[in-house]
Write a structure and sequence with these properties.
Helices cover 43% and strands 18% of the residues. The protein is built from five helices and 20 strands. The strands form three sheets. Strands 1, 4, 5, 8, 11, 14, 17, 18, 19 and 20 form a ten-stranded parallel β-sheet that branches. Strands 2-6-9-12-15 form a five-stranded parallel β-sheet, with no helix packed on it. Helix 2 runs antiparallel to helix 3, helix 2 packs parallel to helix 4 and helix 3 runs antiparallel to helix 4. It starts with a helix and ends in a 10-residue tail after the last strand.
């Protein structure tokens, strides 16, 4: 294995040297062609097109040609030096990236070890260490790896509160400490996703696999833009706190709430804009909590409520000021049960007609 690695490194080094040699050769050939062109142009300008063995050059002309030759050689040398400097810079940058990746890997291993500790306090330190690594990652793949680990931690089996009676007091305190770790991860995800893309510490565009996660705390995605990547709350349970998507823009990402259970919580999509991508609430259960879509705009893409179960007075498509409008999107409630139609309006006369599919139980009876 060691000899194979050595031969590989030698081959890579020879390949890099060969590329440099080829570049220098091409550069020198280009310089010679330029010099020849300049010399020919000078001959034409000095009216020596018909120069022969009997013609003679005076001293001044010969001196000018010599100066021109030295100038061309100097220019070729400068060009070669520029190519070498550029190549050296590329090699230095590649080396810096490898060093940054190596340091990132070392810090990543330490953070994951902390996350697997028996002590909740050490786990909390590991959470913040992974979030910091995601912020400082030298490329998106390493950032995604940190996020995947945080999401995987949230998907670990969720142990309910054993109660605060004297016989389970230690277990109760341990539960509260571990819940603090989980809530910190959820808060960090929403905080980082709110930051505009291409800015420092923004996690927009990354994938988030939160399938089956229990969300029992506040999360704030207000104003966030879901324009790329996959964000999945499939099978998640929203059982406490408030989750805000107010003013968020769903314009290209795939966002899944498929088979999620929204009970005992408040989820707000007030004035959210669904202008592209795919948002799936298929099979979701809306019971015991409150979900608001008041003022939301469905102007593009697909929003799927197929098979969703709506309890009475838990989902609102209108509020005190205005209702949700559908002006160019495909919104489907096929096979949905319960009552959640009030307030969802279709705008008439739009360039792209709205497409809303209601189940037969929501349609008015035929007279």
């Amino acid at each position: 294995m060691t000899s194979r690695r050595r031969s590989r490194s030698l081959n890579e080094r020879e390949l890099r040297l060969w590329r440099v040699g080829r570049t220098l050769g091409l550069t020198f050939a280009a310089a010679v062609l330029v010099a020849g062109g300049v010399f020919y142009g000078l001959v034409v300008l000095l009216d020596f097109q018909e120069i022969d063995t009997t013609a003679k050059l005076d001293a001044k002309t010969l001196f000018d040609l010599v100066k021109l030759s030295f100038g061309v050689v100097a220019g070729a040398g400068a060009l070669v030096a520029l190519v070498v400097a550029y190549r050296r810079q590329c090699v230095d940058e590649a080396g810096a990236h490898r060093e940054a990746t190596r340091l990132h890997t070392e810090r990543f291993s330490q953070a994951v070890d902390k996350l697997g500790s028996d002590s909740p306090a050490v786990r909390l330190g590991g959470v913040h260490a992974l979030a910091g690594l995601a912020d400082d990652a030298p490329d998106n793949n390493l950032r995604q790896t940190c996020i995947d680990v945080l999401c995987a931690y949230l998907q670990l089996p969720y142990t309910p509160d054993p109660g605060n009676d004297p016989t389970h007091q230690d277990e109760h305190h341990h539960y509260l400490a571990l819940r603090k770790v989980r809530h910190t991860i959820l808060r960090l995800i929403s905080d980082h996703y709110q930051r505009p893309r291409e800015t420092h510490r923004s996690w927009q565009g990354c994938d988030f696999d939160l399938d089956g996660v229990t969300i029992d705390c506040d999360m704030d995605f207000s104003g966030a833009t879901f324009s790329d990547g996959l964000v999945s709350f499939g099978g998640a349970t929203f059982s406490g706190g408030m989750v805000f998507f107010g003013g968020a823009t769903f314009s290209g990402a795939s966002v899944y709430f498929e088979d999620a259970t929204l009970s005992g919580t408040m989820v707000r999509f007030d004035r959210a804009t669904f202008s592209g991508g795919y948002t799936n609430f298929g099979g979701a259960t809306f019971s015991g909590g409150t979900v608001f879509f008041g003022g939301a705009v469905f102007s593009g893409g697909t929003v799927d409520f197929n098979g969703a179960a709506f309890s009475s007075e838990t989902v609102y498509f209108d509020d005190l000021t205005d209702g949700a409008t559908c002006s160019g999107a495909r919104v489907s409630f096929r096979n949905a049960s319960g009552s959640a139609r009030n307030g969802l309006l279709a705008t008439v006369g739009t360039p792209v007609p709205a497409e809303i599919h209601f189940p037969s139980i929501w349609l008015p009876p035929v007279p």
